[in-house]
Design goal:
Structural class: mainly alpha
Largest sheet: none
Number of strands: 0
Radius of gyration: 17 Å
Strand content: under 5%
Order of helices and strands: HHHH
Oligomer: single chain
Amino acid sequence: MKRARFSDEQIVRILQEADRSPIAEVAKSHGVSEPSIYSWRKKFGDLGTDDVKRLKQLEQEYGRFKEDIGRARSRD
Protein backbone atom coordinates (compact mmCIF):
# COMPACT_ATOMS: atom_id res chain seq x y z
CA MET A 1 0.00 0.00 0.00
CA LYS A 2 1.31 3.43 -0.94
CA ARG A 3 1.92 5.80 1.96
CA ALA A 4 -0.25 8.89 1.89
CA ARG A 5 1.16 12.14 3.19
CA PHE A 6 -1.30 14.43 4.91
CA SER A 7 -0.86 17.95 6.19
CA ASP A 8 -1.55 18.56 9.86
CA GLU A 9 -4.78 20.32 8.95
CA GLN A 10 -5.92 17.34 6.87
CA ILE A 11 -5.12 14.99 9.73
CA VAL A 12 -7.20 17.08 12.13
CA ARG A 13 -10.12 17.01 9.69
CA ILE A 14 -9.80 13.22 9.41
CA LEU A 15 -9.79 12.96 13.21
CA GLN A 16 -12.89 15.13 13.42
CA GLU A 17 -14.55 12.83 10.91
CA ALA A 18 -13.47 9.82 12.98
CA ASP A 19 -15.25 11.35 15.97
CA ARG A 20 -18.52 11.22 14.03
CA SER A 21 -18.12 7.94 12.12
CA PRO A 22 -16.61 4.50 12.76
CA ILE A 23 -12.83 4.65 12.62
CA ALA A 24 -12.65 1.66 10.27
CA GLU A 25 -14.80 3.47 7.68
CA VAL A 26 -12.85 6.72 7.99
CA ALA A 27 -9.52 4.92 7.70
CA LYS A 28 -10.65 3.04 4.60
CA SER A 29 -12.09 6.13 2.91
CA HIS A 30 -8.81 8.03 3.35
CA GLY A 31 -6.51 5.09 2.61
CA VAL A 32 -4.85 4.98 6.02
CA SER A 33 -4.67 2.32 8.69
CA GLU A 34 -6.70 2.40 11.88
CA PRO A 35 -3.49 2.49 13.98
CA SER A 36 -2.48 5.66 12.08
CA ILE A 37 -5.68 7.36 13.18
CA TYR A 38 -5.07 6.32 16.79
CA SER A 39 -1.49 7.60 16.72
CA TRP A 40 -2.64 10.89 15.16
CA ARG A 41 -5.21 11.20 17.93
CA LYS A 42 -2.42 10.83 20.50
CA LYS A 43 -0.39 13.51 18.75
CA PHE A 44 -3.11 16.04 17.99
CA GLY A 45 -5.62 15.32 20.75
CA ASP A 46 -8.51 17.76 20.58
CA LEU A 47 -6.82 20.37 18.40
CA GLY A 48 -8.91 22.04 15.73
CA THR A 49 -7.63 23.10 12.34
CA ASP A 50 -7.25 26.70 13.55
CA ASP A 51 -5.21 25.48 16.52
CA VAL A 52 -2.88 23.55 14.23
CA LYS A 53 -2.38 26.59 11.98
CA ARG A 54 -1.58 28.74 15.01
CA LEU A 55 0.82 26.10 16.36
CA LYS A 56 2.70 26.03 13.02
CA GLN A 57 2.88 29.82 13.02
CA LEU A 58 4.30 29.84 16.55
CA GLU A 59 6.86 27.17 15.63
CA GLN A 60 8.03 29.29 12.68
CA GLU A 61 8.27 32.40 14.85
CA TYR A 62 10.24 30.45 17.44
CA GLY A 63 12.65 29.24 14.74
CA ARG A 64 13.25 32.80 13.54
CA PHE A 65 13.72 33.93 17.14
CA LYS A 66 16.36 31.24 17.72
CA GLU A 67 18.17 32.29 14.52
CA ASP A 68 18.15 35.93 15.62
CA ILE A 69 19.58 35.00 19.02
CA GLY A 70 22.26 32.87 17.34
CA ARG A 71 23.26 35.76 15.09
CA ALA A 72 23.32 38.20 18.03
CA ARG A 73 25.54 35.85 20.05
CA SER A 74 27.95 35.35 17.16
CA ARG A 75 28.45 39.12 16.92
CA ASP A 76 29.52 39.34 20.57
